[in-house]
Amino acid sequence: MNEQVRSILAQETTKTSKIRQLFLLGVPRAEIARVVTNGNYGFVVNALRRMSERESGLNTHPATVALDYTFNRKFGIEIEAYNCSRERLARELREAGIEVTVEGYNHTTRPHWKLVTDSSLNGNDTFELVSPILVGETGLRELEKVCWVLDLCDVKVNESCGLHVHIDAAGFSMATWRNLALSYKHLESVIDRFMPASRRDNYYCKGLGHVSDETIRSARTVDELKNRIGNRYHKVNLEAYSRHKTVEFRQHSGTTNFTKMRNWVLFLHKLVTFATRGQVPAATALRDIPFLDDEQKLYYKLRTKKFIGMNKHMYILADGGRIAASDPSEFVRVLREGSWFDSGCTDGEYMVNFSGRYRELHGVTVRTDTPEHFMDDLKKYGYIKG
């Protein structure tokens, strides 16, 4: 049984909800009956039929028709960068057939591109280039032309720069909003790994880890969910809905690279599309993300490998040892591999065994439910010195 299935079965929710999520993952009905209803196949069939009738008015379950991920959605993009005057960039964009104006800082959606100021950016000739409403593949082709001009003008980015994407949210149901927030929260650690460290939890794109799943599930309105997540400076910004009828995703690092932009826009489009049917379970690995095709999984796998090499930290242990690791999971693996006692067991078994020995020696309990908690407690109790 994989981690996604275990996560769904552990949820404090109805059998019907679990049946739906498992079916969306492609689990056969007979297997769903075995793990959810103790073999009551008829209950599963009836639950799927009722959901079909309720959601689509048809006599077929909606998941029997695959989700349509064709990209025809409205979206917008904000590119933060520096090293080119707004006047020169506007001139080059116009020569390339891109309608653009130079303006002061504002939040007004225009029918054309706009170049505005942004006081949060560092560098010479900083600017924010904001798109009009773009649509699907046609919008991506226009964005690609813009990237050609950015390259011509030697536009640069640094750690102060971000790439913000707005996705049309005008037709979202409340269930979609909740599914979207939960899915992003559940995938946050995966997404963090293919983002630079500067975009993992900074002031302008804070994470969602402070909000419990139950707090999200119990929200009855978009405003209520927005207030529970916090202000607009979060990875998922719901304040954008009241102003633009969009949801804004703020996590991506600044870039002028069209391939990065395209893949991130499509990732978000597919995430939103999936949220219309269900949520991504907690602890879902990159390889198991249900809305990504093999090409995108490979792209983000390679991005992850790149940042693993760039973002390793050196941890000094109480016994004088040192471990270089990019995240808690890697720290546990390296610690286990160097163990005299448990190098041959799994990482989970190692954490339990280590915690038992540490409790006997020091009288404190190190949590073992996640590598993150395990590592936090080792810092708290002095095993990790720095």
Brief synopsis:
By secondary structure, the chain is an alpha+beta fold. Helices cover 46% and strands 11% of the residues.
CATH topology name of the largest domain, in short, is Creatine Kinase, Chain A, domain 2
Summarize the main sheet: 8 strands, mixed
Query: Distance between termini?
Result: 37 Å
| Unreliable stretches covering 5 or more consecutive residues | 55-65
What percent of residues adopt helix (DSSP H or I)?
40-55%
Give the percentage of residues in beta strands.
5-15%
Oligomer: single chain
Description of the molecule:
It is a single chain. With 386 residues, the chain is an alpha+beta fold. It folds into 3 domains: 62 residues, no CATH class; 233 residues, Creatine Kinase, Chain A, domain 2; 68 residues, no CATH class. The protein is 46% helix and 11% strand. The protein has 15 helices and 10 strands. Strands 1, 2, 3, 4, 5, 6, 7 and 8 form an 8-stranded mixed beta sheet that branches. A hairpin with a 5-residue loop joins strand 9 and strand 10. Helix 2 packs antiparallel against helix 3 and helix 13 packs across helix 15. The longest helix has 20 residues. The chain is globular, with a radius of gyration of 23 Å. About 3% of the residues have low confidence.
